[in-house]
Sequence to fold (300 residues):
Amino acid sequence: MTAQRVLVTAGTGTVGQHVVRELRDDVEVRVGTRRPQSVREAGDSDSDSDEHVVEFDFARPETWGAALDGVDATFLVRPPGVEQRQVTAFVDAASRVRVDHVVYLSTLGADKNVLIPHHRIESHIQQSAVRSTFLRASFFTQNLHEVHGQDVVEHDEIFVPAGSGETSFVDARDVAAVAAVVLTDDRHDKQAYDLTGPEALRYDEVAAVFTDVLDRQITYADPSIPAFVRRMLSRDLPLSYVLLMVGIYSTARFGFAGRVTDDVERLLGRPPRTVRDYVEDYRDRFEPARTPAAAHSPER
Fold:
């Protein structure tokens, strides 16, 4: 059955916001968020009426019923800090109300790594009554501004403890485009797709792309893990989140994050975006704020 009404969990997040944009012309989209009122007050252009933005919180099951009411499919995201049991309980709830299809945003290698929550969530979904598709994504290029943009702006550096390992960065917009394809085409049941960009880069190579596009020198700091943890904690990030990032960058450091696939191109009929494409599109996020004096300096 082709979906007519889709719930996008984490609908204002890194990938979810783009899934909403990709779907809105084809199906009725329900944007799930913990703070719907803030989305409405911000005048979110992706929601043409309040009823399309719904309160949804994995930690509050009382929000699930209204969010799932009449839904055919859901784009399922496990945000940082959400427990595995909360996600699997939601899958069970979706199954009970006869949601037909769950598209789960997983991570590259989840099928083999039994230690991570994504592996166990995938297994639970497979055992449920819903049809399922897994999108196993590599590291999002958008993390370079959402998580690490401050380092580029303030220090002209990329500050991650990834050593000399490569990463097959994937653009969140491409992941969202794939999600829209599999949510609106019933031929993807029981499929899993490994989503990467077109190439794997070391972080010094990423810094070189930044340097070229931004026209100023950006370096790769390659900090030690303790130095990385200290800086992140100084920004009041939760220790659990910082340790999660350490784990992610350790996969690159030890050579496990560089695999490149053609799944994005096969599903979209076009090549995936490159890191250069991303930096060019988001370059304003990396520009230092100009001082009033600099902004209004007289012509010479």
